[in-house]
Design a protein that fits this description.
This protein is mainly α. The protein has five helices and two strands; from the N terminus they run αβαβααα. The protein has a two-stranded parallel ribbon with strand order 1-2.
Length: about 150
């Protein structure tokens, strides 16, 4: 439902935890992004549904993720930081959902190392490393009655 749940997190923090927007800091840890776009160069714009089948789903997920990130960046400004790497289509195919091959593991390990090195030592890493907050108290859930 939300490939990038950052906007939901902002809304829930405000609505249920009574946190002001200016007091929200968000660290987004992604799971590798494949920034799909539609390009007429590859003939996809003139293609039918059969050629679009999986590409359309990937495009929808990518658009949702990218648009949510832009909204959260707009709302939070420099109080938002994202740790994520963009992967190629070939790497995306090698990783796939629930693939545990050696190739997939190597790609994931390398990309996580790259992301960590970019993040470590930045002002943002110091901010999150030194952050302390009161313990989180879950919001009581309404109990459903079964009839």
């Amino acid at each position: 439902m939300a490939n990038h749940p950052g906007l939901f997190a902002c809304i829930e923090a405000q609505k249920f935890l009574n946190i002001k927007l200016e007091d929200i800091y968000q660290l987004h840890i992604g799971t590798l992004s494949n920034r799909h776009t539609s390009s007429g160069k590859k003939g996809m714009l003139k293609s039918g549904f059969w050629q679009w089948k999986t590409k359309l789903i990937e495009l929808i997920f990518s658009c949702q993720e990218q648009s949510t990130e832009q909204i959260v960046k707009f709302l939070l400004g420099n109080r938002y930081y994202s740790i994520d790497e963009i992967i190629s289509g070939e790497q995306s195919s090698a990783i796939g959902l629930d693939k545990v091959t050696e190739v997939a593991q190597n790609i994931l390990a390398k990309k996580s190392e790259i992301s960590f090195q970019k993040f470590w030592g930045t002002e943002e890493s110091k901010r999150y490393k030194n952050h302390t907050k009161e313990p989180f108290n879950p919001i009581p859930q309404e109990k459903e009655t079964i009839q």
